[in-house]
Amino acid sequence: MPGEPQQILEEIFGYDAFRGEQREIIEHLTGGKDALVLMPTGGGKSLCYQIPAIVNHRAGRGVTVVVSPLIALMHDQVAALHENGVEAAFLNSSLSAEQFSITRERMMRGELAMLYAAPERVTNAEFLADLETLSTAGLLAGFAIDEVHCVSQWGHDFRPEYIELRVLHERFPAVPRIALTATADALTRAEIVGNLDLGGAREFISSFDRPNIHYAIAEKRDAKKQLLRFIRERHVGESGIVYCLSRRKVEETANWLSEQGIPALPYHAGLDANTRRVHQDRFLREDGLVMTATIAFGMGIDKPDVRFVAHLDMPKNIEGYYQETGRAGRDGEPADAWMAYGLQDVVLQRNMLERGEAGERHKQVLRGKLDALLAMCESTGCRRVQLLEYFGEPAEPCGNCDNCVSPPETLDAGEPARMLLSCIYRCEQNFGSGHVFDVLRGNETEKVARFGHQRLSTFGVGAEYGEQQWRSVLRQLVARGYVRVDPEHFNVLRLAGEWRPFITSDAALPLRKAVKAARASSKSSGRASAGTGRAVVEPAPLDAAGEALFERLRAWRREQADARDVPAYVIFGNATLHEIALCRPATLEQLASVKGVGDAKLENFGAAVLELVAEPDDESAIVAA
Ligand code: ADP
Ligand code: ZN
User: Is 435 in the pocket of ligand 1 (CB under 6 A)?
Assistant: First the structure.
């Protein structure tokens, strides 16, 4: 039937099967009930509300209001819906007064299947009055609240406007709501339910595994050079995001990468709005650009072919890390999440936390979150297992992370750790790491002599360990909270937490053996993830003629995208172009069976694509000429 979800999936979106829980979610919603959907980035959240919205609209039940936090995100979503022939629009400050009133009237007449707007718009009095009118006329089909973790006060993306969205349920209790997010640990989930009064909603929680992402965390030596090598070895000519903590470092890194011949642009909140927009647009539209950014960049960036996300500084918790790395490989093809991490990161994050404004109870929560991330960085086991277990999902070693691919050699650093703790104690918790290492290694420096530290019982007890190894022991101890680096006093080392029981125990401290600068491991093969049994399918390779056709299709797509002023993937995704280049459809019917080709796209682009496929490729054209 024309109004059936399955048919809409095929005809409008060009896909033949639902993914994961999409079908169940859609049926739940069209049945008039509320849902809370947790699905990883790239999992296919949009269809979960777009298809019910289309079903409802076709049945004469009017509009679904989609709450979305960012203007850029609304534009791209609406553009993509238009390309698929769906009546959708947005209301935001980018519209002229005239465009605004036209869109509003279309909504009031029930012409729109979806209306996108920001939370502050949706909750203002005028808009609520319009919704009242629609609701009375039976033309208010539902609410979809995207990026709903923004309602969480303790999360990394809190937006106070989101709390106000509660009013939607108070005013329109009978209108079904769907709330969606790609991050939510148990705490955030509870906040979402509490703050938005979603207690009656059914929760749909998908696996958070992203099997196509290869995770790697490297010990920081010369982070910039490590980054450069990582990009050169694995991602030449590909799009990626590099996250840094400070604006200054963002600028420096972008300049430096550009000097090294890797096209890179900076993005941070200190740049004016216009520059930010231009950089973001270029990143979305051009191939092979690296965006160097603070965490101000990324939410709502649904570019599917970001091939890597690199962190030059450690984020503050696993949610942040997961959210940021999740921007890689939304198209399901192999992608990399790479981080360089060192003692400075641990110290910096700890200090920011302690100096922050938060109250003690809140700080306690934040410390726990930071510790979980530190544990993951220091772990010698599977990264994915750690990541997923944090979200409450049991997992098996994955075979697609650095620790699985080349298991690190470990040693028990319990003994040196106790030496280090007692040396800090003997130095009266008054010296920085350099001096403490000198004492441990028995270096007779001027400072050692000045303080008479050659007479300490710990002088020279750790001569057999190198500086690198000591750093790694110290990092572990800081990560475990036994040592604190005091920022107020020249970064001197202080004993903290449960250091006493540890020093008198014979507990082990598994440590990764310091290795000479390891090469980035070989390009991740799209192997099956043992943890979930989900396979990452690497696309079938193209022959020379296929490659040539793929390039022609990409060039053609670029022209179409430019002419329509939309990102390239809104026309067709890479996977779709790849399949076309592989199967070389000769008829519209054959083309229609390619993934991502729906009716509207077939009508608008079908003939042009078939022509491109039929064209002889360049070489033979030259020979023929
Ligand atoms: P999310 O919002 O969860 O990050 P999207 O809704 O943007 O993910 O979907 C990610 C990609 O997967 C998009 O390119 C989308 O068109 C595609 N997709 C979604 N559902 C399906 C499906 N059932 N079959 C094939 N592709 C799908
Ligand atoms: Zn693993």
Answer: no
**Positions in the chain short of pLDDT 50:** 516-537, 619-625
pLDDT value for 324: 93
pTM: 0.72
| Domains with residue ranges and CATH for the chain | 5-205 (3.40.50.300), 213-404 (3.40.50.300), 411-514 (1.10.10.10), 544-624 (1.10.150.80)
Question: Where does 115-246 have alpha helices with state H?
Answer: 119-122, 125-136, 160-163, 166-171, 186-196, 223-234
Ligand nearest to the CA of 300: 1
Output the DSSP codes for 483-543.
EEEETTTTTEEEE-TTHHHHHTS----EEEPP-S-PPPPSPPP----TTT----PPPPPP-
**Hey, is 275 helix, strand or coil?**
helix
CA 161 – CA 120 distance, rounded (Å):
6
Ligand nearest, relative to CA of residue 301? 1
Closest ligand 1 atom to Cα of 16: 24
Pairing of strands 240-243, 308-311: parallel
pLDDT in tens, 415-435: 999 999 999 999 999 999 999
Which amino acid would we find at residue 510? P
- Please give the distance, rounded to the nearest whole angstrom, from the Cα atom of residue 208 to the centre of ligand 1: 15
**Taking Cα atoms as reference points, which of 359, 261, 383 lies closest to residue 311?**
383
Q: How far is the CA of 46 from the centre of ligand 1 (A)?
A: 7
Please state, rounded to an integer, the average pLDDT across all residues of the chain.
88
d(CA 327, CA 330): 7
